[in-house]
Design brief:
Elements: H1 3-9, E1 12-18, H2 25-35, H3 44-49, H4 56-66, H5 73-89, E2 92-99, H6 101-105, H7 111-129, E3 132-140, H8 145-155, E4 164-168, H9 180-188, E5 192-197, H10 203-211, E6 217-220, H11 228-236, E7 241-243, H12 245-250, H13 262-267, E8 272-274, H14 279-282, H15 286-297, H16 301-314, H17 319-333
Parallel strand pairs: 1-2, 2-3, 3-4, 4-5, 5-6, 6-7, 7-8
Helix pairs in contact: 1-15, 5-7, 16-17
Bound molecules: adenine (ADE) and zinc ion (ZN).
Length: 335
């Protein structure tokens, strides 16, 4: 079996995927036409050519603008359904998906419209594709904590359909401490907790996300390597890191894939997973992320199995849901 076929055959969970970041230019143009919205680009090709980022903020500016074509329940459904089809092709059996309600409610789109479209797609994916999923609501960290509290209020009637919360958007200058109260409230409500930390921000943000926000996973977290004591703790406590290789290259967290620290993190005993973050903007879905990092760092098939196994173990599902995926993974590993 060639390497890409092997990667796709591994049952895996995707744990770090922003649904708004899976908006391909083709769908962006279709939705713009459907909704009578003018785009700043003349064509799909011109749009892709504009995806030359220098850092996280340069990406976020384009990503938030792109999300402006999402208006109706059907738009959110179509967005998520397109992602599920790509994920299925890459062997994703389970996805824990971020959405950014504040990006939409700030434009006057009701919270319920966003959630209804995503939820309908999740149900169809389960039934038609056999892909299971959960939704994680992300708070935008460049906005005040009061805004996050208002978003949580809007989410309250729908908590059976929201499995957890995350923290995303501009990291530098937006420390975890800013969101300590809203995360404490989410914890009381029984929601799962994750946060982006140590992508562009310092290793201390990872520590603060654990100690102040009490998160169960760290999104990105690659800068943990700068703090040996933190590394030791992440390994000992088996705190999963949701690493996104193509994202890290496109946003210049590392100068090249060969210089990515994923193998060092793995060798030091951390629970590392591979994910696609914003695949429509960064040049590939989860299979491509596995493939490019495997080739650049010469990862063995055993290491790829470990990465896929980590993703299943790090997901917020029950042991009963996880068991058949793990069994299938071991079967592929031993084939
Ligand atoms: N929102 C979407 N992708 C993100 C990323 N990689 N970091 C922070 N916020 C994001
Ligand atoms: Zn992200």
């Amino acid at each position: 079996m060639d390497l890409l076929a092997f990667i796709r055959a591994l049952p895996k969970a995707e744990l770090h995927l922003h649904l708004e970041g899976s908006l391909e230019p083709e769908l962006m143009f279709e939705l713009a036409r459907r909704n009578g919205i003018a785009l700043p680009y003349a064509s799909v090709e011109e749009t892709r050519a504009a995806y030359a980022f220098t850092d996280l903020q340069s990406f976020l500016n384009i990503y938030y603008a792109g999300a402006g074509v999402l208006i109706h329940e059907r738009d959110f459904h179509d967005l998520a359904m397109a992602y599920f089809q790509r994920a299925k092709a890459d062997g994703v059996v389970h996805a824990e998906l971020f959405f950014d309600p504040q990006t939409h409610t700030a434009r006057g789109i009701p919270f319920e419209t966003v959630l209804a479209g995503l939820e309908r797609a999740a149900q169809a994916a389960r039934k038609e594709l056999g892909v299971s999923s959960r939704l994680l609501l992300c708070f935008l960290r460049h906005l005040p904590e009061e805004d996050a509290f208002r978003t949580l209020e809007q989410a309250m009637p729908h908590l059976q359909r929201i499995h957890g919360v995350g923290l995303d958007s501009s990291e530098l200058g937006q420390p975890p401490a800013k969101f300590q109260r809203v995360f404490a409230r989410c914890r009381e409500l029984g929601l799962h907790l994750v946060a982006h930390a140590g992508e562009e921000g310092p290793a201390s943000y990872i520590k603060d996300a654990l100690d102040l926000l009490k998160v169960q996973r760290i999104d990105h977290g690659v800068r943990a390597l700068e703090d040996p004591a933190l590394m030791e703790r992440l390994a000992r406590e088996r705190i999963p890191l949701t690493v996104c290789p193509l994202s890290n290259i496109k946003l210049r967290v590392f100068p090249s894939m060969a210089q990515h620290n994923l193998k060092q993190l793995l060798d030091l005993g951390l629970c590392i997973t591979i994910n696609s973050d914003d695949p429509a903007y960064f040049g590939g879905y989860i299979g491509q992320n596995y493939l490019e990092i495997a080739l650049a760092l010469k990862l063995t098939r055993t290491e790829l199995v470990t990465l896929a196994r980590n993703s299943l173990l790090a997901s917020f599902v029950t042991d009963a849901e996880r068991a058949p995926w793990l069994a299938k993974l071991e079967a592929v590993a031993n084939s």
